[in-house]
Amino acid sequence: MNGKTKPPNYTVSSGTSNTRLYVSMFLSIVYDHLINPGHWTEDMRDHALQPADLDDRNMLVVDVGGGTGFTTLGIVKHVDANNVTILDQSPHQLAKAKQKEPLKDCEIVEGDAENLPFRTDYADRYVSAGSIEYWPDPQRGIKEAYRVLKLGGKACLIGPVHPTFWLSRFFADVWMLFPKEEEYIEWFEKAGFKDVQLKRIGPKWYRGVRRHGLIMGCSVTGIKPASGDSPLELGPKEEDVEKPVNPFVFLLRFALGASAATWFVLVPIYMWLKDQVVPKGQPI
């Protein structure tokens, strides 16, 4: 990204943020059985976690926005479960994580990705997969990632990429945050991370065409070069938590969000079918 291009301000009203949380609560029922098989498979997860360098079973890891624990299952392959903390805002999703036997020794914490309940210089690794989509202010969340890491610690953030196809772009914009790849890099660098790297990921049907976007499309890593808080200074949160939400506006947002969720469930099915029909070597 050149110096003249500024990422859009993703800070949203509490109404939009709450709508995303309600949609997330609804999706928690089907994440492991419907969403993950199309957008976040075990192969993708393991591929995306490789840059996190989970190479010590005793390192402290925080899985922010860990939800139902699908990504955490990949983390505990390399790190002892009693050294891993799963944090999420949704008690519905955390309840799913608690039921998984490999995660029974993990610490479960209900909390906010933009205001983490961990001390500064706490963790060796910060992992967040499929969570940034719901953050009202991504820059604030990445700043928090920097703060809670130890000197030399590494953050690994896995998230969506922005579609170019008009209908997918419309649904992406009304449902969640689908950042551009260069925006991830700029957010990390502004927070103070060094050696920022972006790795593209995708399901088996993915052939390099990102016009529909991908709910899990890239894995971004950065290293904390100095102890303490992030050098980036931000003002107070801009969410208007006191303003009541218009019920009609809420219902409209929820309906659009549910429609978008349905669309992005159908897209991988459509792309998988094309992958079976279109000759190999040709983009789909």
Task: Describe the structure using short key phrases.
single chain, 284 residues, alpha/beta, Rossmann fold, 18% strand
Q: What is the CATH topology assignment?
A: Rossmann fold
Note the overall shape.
globular
Question: How much helical structure, as a percent, in the residues?
Answer: 25-40%
Strand content: 15-25%
End-to-end gap: 27 Å
Overall pLDDT level: 84
| Strand order in the sheet with the most strands | 3-2-1-4-5-7-6
CATH level-two architecture: 3-Layer(aba) Sandwich
Which sequence of SSEs, written as H and E, runs from N to C?
HHHEHEHEEHEHHEEH
Number of strands: 7
Which class in CATH terms?
Answer: Alpha Beta
Discrete helix count = 9
Radius of gyration: 18 Å
CATH superfamily: Vaccinia Virus protein VP39
| Biggest sheet details | 7 strands, mixed
Regions with pLDDT < 50 over 5+ consecutive residues? 1-19
Counted up, domains total 1
User: Helices and strands: which structural class?
Assistant: alpha/beta
Characterization of this structure:
The chain has 284 residues and is an alpha/beta fold. The chain has a single domain, classed as Rossmann fold (3-Layer(aba) Sandwich). Helix content is 38%, strand content 18%. The protein contains nine helices and seven strands, in the order H-H-H-E-H-E-H-E-E-H-E-H-H-E-E-H. A seven-stranded mixed beta sheet has the order 3-2-1-4-5-7-6, with helices on both faces. Strand 2, helix 5 and strand 3 form a beta-alpha-beta unit. The protein is globular and about 50 Å long. It starts with 13 loop residues before the first helix and ends in a 7-residue tail after the last helix. Keywords: Membrane, Methyltransferase, S-adenosyl-L-methionine, Transferase, Transmembrane, Transmembrane helix. It comes from Lupinus luteus. Pfam families: Methyltransf_11.
